[in-house]
UniProtKB/TrEMBL annotation:
This is Amino acid permease. It comes from the Bacteria. It comes from Lactobacillus amylolyticus DSM 11664. It is found in: Membrane. GO terms for cellular component: membrane.
Amino acid sequence: MLTGMRTPYILAQDNLLPYSNKIGKTNIHTGVPIIGAVIVNLIAIIMILLGNFNVLTDMLVFVMWTFNTMLSIAVLVLRKREPELKRPFSVPWYPLIPLISIIGGVFIVVSTIINQFILSMIGIGLTLLGMPIYYYKQKQNKANNNLKN
């Protein structure tokens, strides 16, 4: 939950959520994204009440490893596609580390689909629910940028 509350905050910073101006605010003293913390904790409470803790972790681990694997693939693709791009961080032992991450991630994702098929599909479904909001906000941001130019 500690890192999860940063997700709505970062999305709000990029104006990719409804009410981004509210969600993107942080506590003056601690820097904690208050609305993000409330959102993530409410989702966690609802999921715990609907099932048990194992259900929550099984879905979360599946979705997290799916995205981690895609991230590692993106590292390989972008290094190949745009080698001249300046990067603030370089992956040590490239390409070994991303390849190990991809192999491990694929193993975990496939194992979870085989052993927890329904929970995996619920995790994918919940993730896909956010896509219409994302594309709507992308379109809205593009229209706003066109008005400014």
